[in-house]
Design a protein that fits this description.
Helix content is 36%, strand content 17%. The protein is an alpha/beta fold. The strands form three sheets. Strands 4, 5, 7, 8, 9, 10, 11, 12, 13 and 14 form a ten-stranded mixed β-sheet that branches. Helix 3 (81-102) packs across helix 10 (292-305), helix 5 crosses helix 6 (184-202) and helix 6 (184-202) packs parallel to helix 7 (218-228). The protein binds (2S,3R,4R)-2,3,4,5-tetrahydroxy-N-oxo-pentanamide and cobalt (II) ion (CO). Residues 38, 171, 211, 213, 263, 313, 315, 317, 340, 390 line the site of (2S,3R,4R)-2,3,4,5-tetrahydroxy-N-oxo-pentanamide.
């Protein structure tokens, strides 16, 4: 019995908002969990503080599966991003505690390493194709084996994924949502040219990826997939919104471009059909928004039976605690595909000192017991919460669209 003494939620904004759960046990061992839900942070804070922490105190921290089931089944209102992010934070913190109690890095408890490191992809972006390719060259020089390319769409004032600060893209940029403008025809006319130029300039010895960010219909996505086939993408991400999973059948029937989807999924029910019917190649669900390490492991095992690999979301709104948890998970599962890696700012890394490190295009979680991430609470307190929203999108005629 490793009794849970207390738990608290820390909100900090070292450049962007992060919500962290810290669970403390009677033995003095503590664990950290990330509960950050970009643009809706305080809903998860309340879910944890007002509804979960009172039920956690006094429980045995070792009983991870039981505690997971207690909250999942016991809330009656199952699932959804707020509840599953809160549950994930509890789950991550408990795995952190268990691994620290064992004196082992978490990946050892998950079955041990299946590979030498976790291959990651970085984000190259620019207003123009030339600028994007120049950025991609920098990633290649740093040793990256896989690079996501996003370029400005001619005729649109701004585009998803294209940022002024190349290193630290933060789409949640306004105290009220920024309004962007979108045109599918303009986008579909420009995207293939980016990859034609990129293969010409970068060659074939690097994996290239692209994120559509849920902006097409299935038939439009099918066309884009076909147009991109000559450039052999590693994956085409979030081609359409995935609430209607059957929509992927149509894309699948038309193109051999590999498909990735799921960074906003809350669990297996958001992707059961996608996996079962083998409609996708990579699942983007994360340990954070999909209910923790406990839940994502089950989903990954199910995916493995259906030829689907993992491709965990790893944007900067996932804190270093999630990044560490994802790396332990990635290292230990049989069907790992690729891990997204957007570097955090030095301010964020200072608040969350961590054992994971990058070399030769791969991240490794390190050998520190547990997740291998600390929280500098004194420093965190110096960065108070700042309301920030993700942008919204409208078509050129003013119609609300997907962002
Ligand atoms: O827009 O993480 O692949 N990465 C992405 C991200 C998401 C943000 C949303 O919080 O799509 O940039
Ligand atoms: Co994405």
């Amino acid at each position: 019995m490793l009794k849970i003494l207390d738990a608290k939620v820390v909100v900090t904004c070292p450049g962007r908002n992060f919500v962290t759960l810290k669970i403390t046990t009677e033995d003095g061992i503590y664990g950290l969990g990330d509960a950050t839900l970009n643009g809706r942070e305080l809903a998860v804070v309340s879910y944890l503080r007002d509804h979960m922490i009172p039920c956690l105190v006094g429980r045995d921290a070792h009983r991870i599966e039981d505690i997971w089931q207690f909250f999942y089944r016991g809330s009656y209102w199952r699932g959804g991003p707020v509840a599953m992010s809160a549950l994930a934070a509890v789950d991550m913190a408990l795995w952190d505690i268990k691994a620290k109690a064992a004196g082992l890095p978490l990946y050892q408890l998950l079955g041990g390493a299946c590979r030498e490191g976790v291959t990651v992809y970085g984000h190259a972006n620019g207003e123009t194709i030339e600028e994007t390719i120049a950025e991609a060259r920098k990633y290649k020089a740093l040793g990256y084996k896989a690079i996501r390319l996003q370029s400005g769409v001619p005729g649109l004032p701004s585009t998803y994924g294209v940022s002024k600060d190349k290193l630290f893209y933060e789409p949640a940029d306004g105290a009220l949502p920024t309004e962007n403008v979108w045109s599918t025809p303009k986008y579909l006319n420009s995207a293939p040219a980016l990859f034609a130029a990129a293969r010409e300039a970068l060659g074939w010895d690097v994996h290239l990826l692209h994120d559509v960010h849920h902006r097409l219909t299935p038939i439009e996505a099918a066309r884009l997939g076909k147009d991109l086939e000559p450039y052999r993408l590693f994956w085409l991400e979030d081609a359409v919104p995935a609430e209607n999973q059957a929509g992927f059948r149509l894309i699948r029937q038309h193109t051999t471009t590999p498909l990735a989807v799921g960074e906003i999924f809350s669990g297996v029910w958001d992707c059961k059909q996608l996996i079962e019917e083998q409609l996708i190649d990579y699942l983007r669900a994360t340990v954070l928004h999909a209910g923790g390490i406990t839940n994502l492991r089950k989903i990954a095992h199910f995916a493995d039976l259906n030829h689907v690999k993992t491709g965990c979301h790893g944007a900067t709104d996932l804190s270093p605690v999630t990044m560490a948890a994802a790396l332990h998970f990635d290292l230990s599962i049989s069907n790992f595909g690729l891990q997204e890696y957007m570097r955090h700012s030095p301010e964020t890394d200072a608040v969350f000192p961590h054992a994971y490190s990058f070399a030769d295009g791969m991240l490794h979680p390190g050998e520190a017991p547990g997740l291998g991430v600390e929280l500098d609470e004194a420093l965190a307190a110096k960065y108070p919460y700042k309301r920030a929203y993700l942008p919204v999108n409208r078509l050129e005629d003013g119609t609300m669209f997907h962002w």
